[in-house]
Design brief:
This protein is α+β, with helices and mostly antiparallel strands and 561 residues long. Helices cover 59% and strands 9% of the residues. Strand 2 (141-142) and strand 3 (146-153) form a beta hairpin.
């Protein structure tokens, strides 16, 4: 019975998506991808002939990347969004295709004012006129998921923009997502080499991203978080959200008055200072907040009438953990100081291995790439974005790929560099990056970070001490019950005892080192006894801790190396 029910559900889903599947097959055939339709049995045997007759006669003369972009554009919002996200993943697809996909525009024919009004009134649960004294019938912008109207609040007369979700778009995207998951599974089966890129995981990641874009409360949350993060930055302005009249399908926010950053130079602003501020803004987002704008491009960056930088469109964001921040700081510092081995090591540490990696060859290729792009060039002449693209492409050849959050950050850096070359050609991005990164490296060894690390180490020891008796008891019970069989090679017993003694000695040394360093941090404000103005007890604790750490390092080196 369970099998019958499962098959019925699968059939019902397939029937629901069949109409959309035929549309996709028609678009693929029209743009010269009939072989894909045949390989995956997407064609309807009855109508395939009619579809073939509707092929674009110019398709064979167009390049592959151009046809992919045109087909993606015609397939609609889900595939356009997927293309836009893939345009940032040069670790997955060729850079030439990334550049073509980056040109995708999700502007489509707008819905009618009557349809937009119906969505707004359904969300507000009242007539539109009760909330807005003015509401433009013509949209300010129209995209695949939503369109934007200008309006004025009735309560206080403030100018706002209203983001209105297209009616029925959720059902279309859900159907497309079901088909995308099917296509991802087909790719894994029919193209074994694609398993290294994990198409199913990419489809799941995309589903999570676009599902959040369908719920405007996520974007409202992002706006408010960015507003809090930049509250002390007078040069950066984040639109204010009006929660009282926003919902999952409409988003009401402050209207920004200004020019796109690439069009603001004729207004007399100091564009070099603005470009530098953009660099500082990105570094704050990534390395201080761990929360950054995931879709930075000139259309989302404005110079306001008072000279401030305004940001819009917060549906896509990236996140950085402390470990990720440290890894990126190391990578950027090695790039700025031209440390080839450091760049290879830092990039390898953040990468996901998809197969066997020859690290020696990897380091040699990174050194060669660095020589090509940095040899005989001043930092001001270096194309930072091109270096990052070359490194990411090189990673693919060595069974390594870069996680999405890192590539999203790389895209943000490359966007700022591209804007800088337009508005401030003399901007030296690597030199602008260096003080930020050096400050981050220094902060890594601040007393607060050392104290926190020491506390974490002590807590880990404490957890281990609490759990060890219980774990040991369970282990012995398992042996008694016969669930675990233990065999001993008595010829190796003496060697095992020596190894145990070494591990115990190292653990004791590590614990004492952490304890003395911890005491040194705690006593750094004790001024009862000083040596050259430094608290004596704190200095003594650091000296002892340093000596013990040296002994620990020397013992490990002597015994293991």
């Amino acid at each position: 019975m369970r099998t019958v029910v499962t098959n019925l559900r699968a059939a019902r889903t397939a029937i629901k998506d069949m109409g959309r599947l035929r549309q996709i097959a028609a678009v693929l055939i029209r743009h010269g991808f009939g072989q894909v339709v045949e390989a995956w049995n997407l064609q309807d045997k009855v109508i395939v002939g009619a579809l073939l007759e509707k092929r674009d006669p110019e398709a064979p003369r167009k390049g592959l990347n151009t046809r992919i972009v045109e087909a993606t554009q015609e397939l609609g919002p889900t595939f356009v969004k997927l293309g836009q996200i893939l345009s940032t993943r040069s670790d997955l697809i060729p850079q030439a295709l990334c550049d073509e996909l980056a040109t995708l525009q999700d502007s489509v024919a707008p819905i009618t004012f009557a349809e937009a009004k119906a969505v707004v009134e359904a969300a507000l649960k009242c007539p539109l006129e009760d909330v807005f004294s003015e509401f433009s019938e013509e949209p300010l912008a129209s995209a695949s998921i939503a369109q934007v109207h200008t309006a004025r609040l009735k309560s206080n007369g403030e100018e706002v923009v209203v983001k209105v979700q297209r009616p029925g778009i959720r059902q279309t995207i859900e159907s497309d997502l079901h088909i995308l998951h099917w296509v991802a599974r087909q790719i894994e089966v029919s193209i074994p080499e694609a398993q290294a890129f994990d198409p199913v995981a990419i489809a799941l990641e995309f589903e999570r991203a676009i599902s959040k874009e369908l719920d405007f409360t996520f974007e409202a949350n992002n706006l408010e978080r960015f507003d809090r993060n930049f509250a002390a930055w007078p040069s950066i302005h984040i639109p204010r959200v009006h929660r009282e009249c926003s919902s999952r399908t409409i988003l009401v926010m402050e209207r920004l008055r200004g020019k796109k950053i690439t069009e603001a130079a004729p207004l007399g602003f100091d564009m070099e200072a603005i470009a530098r501020e953009c660099v500082s803004m990105i570094f704050k987002m990534v390395f201080e907040d761990g929360f950054f704008h995931g879709d930075l491009h000139p259309g989302n960056l404005f110079v306001l009438e008072d000279g401030r930088i305004g940001l819009i469109d917060f549906g896509l964001v990236g996140r950085m953990t402390q470990v990720m921040k440290d890894a990126m700081a190391d990578l950027l510092l090695h790039l700025a100081t031209r440390n080839h081995a450091g760049v290879a090591r830092a990039l390898f540490e953040i990468a996901i291995r998809t197969g066997k990696v020859d690290y020696g060859r990897w380091e040699a290729e990174v050194s060669e790439l660095m020589d090509v792009h940095l040899a005989d060039a001043s930092l001001a002449e270096v194309d930072f974005g091109e270096i990052l693209r070359a490194l990411v492409e090189g990673a693919i050849r060595h069974n390594v790929r870069i996680p999405a959050d890192y590539t999203m950050f790389f895209k943000a850096i490359m966007t700022v560099e591209g804007i800088g070359k337009i508005v401030a050609p003399d901007l030296d991005l690597l030199s602008e990056c260096r003080p930020h990164v050096e400050r981050l490296i220094a902060a890594r060894y601040s007393p607060e970070r050392v104290l926190r690390a020491s506390v974490d180490t002590l807590q880990a020891f404490a957890r281990f001490a609490r759990q060890f008796p219980v774990s040991a008891h369970e282990f012995l019970r398992s042996i008694e019950d016969g669930r675990i069989n233990v065999g001993l090679d008595f010829g190796q017993l003496e060697k095992l005892e020596r190894a145990r003694d070494r591990r115990l000695n190292r653990a004791v040394l590590a614990g004492l080192t952490a304890a003395f360093l911890f005491c040194g941090v705690l006593l750094r404000h004790d001024a009862r006894w000083t040596v050259f103005g430094v608290p004596g007890l704190s200095l003594l604790a650091f000296i002892v801790g340093g000596y013990l750490s040296f002994r620990l390092f020397w013992r490990i080196r002597k015994e293991d190396w």
